[in-house]
Amino acid sequence: MPFRILKKKILAPNIKKIIVKAPLIARKAKAGQFVILRVDEHGERIPLTLVDWNEKEGTITLIFQEVGVSTLKLGLLEEGDEIHDILGPVGNPGEYVRDQTICVVAGGVGIGAAYPRTKQLKELGNYIVSIIGARSAELLILEEEMKKYSDEIYITTDDGSKGRKGFVTEVLKELLEKGRKFDQVLSIGPPIMMKVTCDVTKPFGVKTIVSLNSMMVCGMGMCGACRVTVGGETKFTCVHGPEFDGHLVDFNELMMRLRMYKEEEQIALEKFKKNILVKSHASG
Ligand code: NAD
Q1: What are the tens digits of pLDDT across the range 236-276?
Q2: What element of type H or E holds 100?
Q3: Which residues make beta-bridge pairs with 8?
Q4: Which of 11, 48, 109 to mutate to test the pocket of ligand 1 (most atoms within 8 A of CB)?
């Protein structure tokens, strides 16, 4: 089954969107689920949230940030190229709730993962207040799509180049302090942002769901790479998550585990970049 890239778009520096032919996945996909792909036969397994899908066209949409060798390799593929394999959909769909007021807090490339849940929750009849943010205006993705499925939207950038200057969590804190009531908060973005979201909501007793981006290998609950501690119990993000009650997640452990192979990742990245440079010199 060739997973051909039909469309590719650069959304922001180092953030790309691809639409890929994957009819079987498109038929089964539900908001909150993800896929695990390998760019080539020897490739690392990359977990990516399903951003969108079209059953009729047999396509899925993925958004990724180029941070390491594997995502850089994925970013080098062009329209017409094939991804070696895609496993999915994996993970549990997000909880279906209706007629609630839900605050979606999403940051950076995590907005891509928050979008399908926002859309689904809006379509289920919930009132959606979105707070989306990025480091700067040029890194803010899916603004129009998020607006479409939000009843209210707040935008922040760390440097103030768009919307309000500051972090998404500052807006959330202000809203809660002003007495704004939410039935739940859904927070998706970098782990530190999700941790701070939970620190903000806890004193107000607001249920807070987070979508974890643990390191992942098998995606079937067997290898244990994606283990997290939730409420003092070991859980596997791939089969028990990716969404969890944020107030029970041990974020310090999650962040420590995500840093575990930083040195090896850096060495691999430098080697990869050097190889590309050598190849481009040889061909040019
Ligand atoms: P980033 O560092 O640019 O941060 C994005 C936004 O998060 C910021 O603009 C800010 O509003 C908020 N934020 C950042 N640090 C904060 C802090 N200390 N306190 C409060 N809010 C803070 O994010 P990025 O580089 O676009 O994202 C990369 C990270 O997102 C990676 O770790 C990646 O694994 C993760 N990610 C997570 C998911 C998920 O499903 N949870 C999906 C995609 C990416």
Answers
A1: 999 999 999 999 999 999 999 988 877 888 888 888 777 77
A2: none
A3: 18
A4: 109
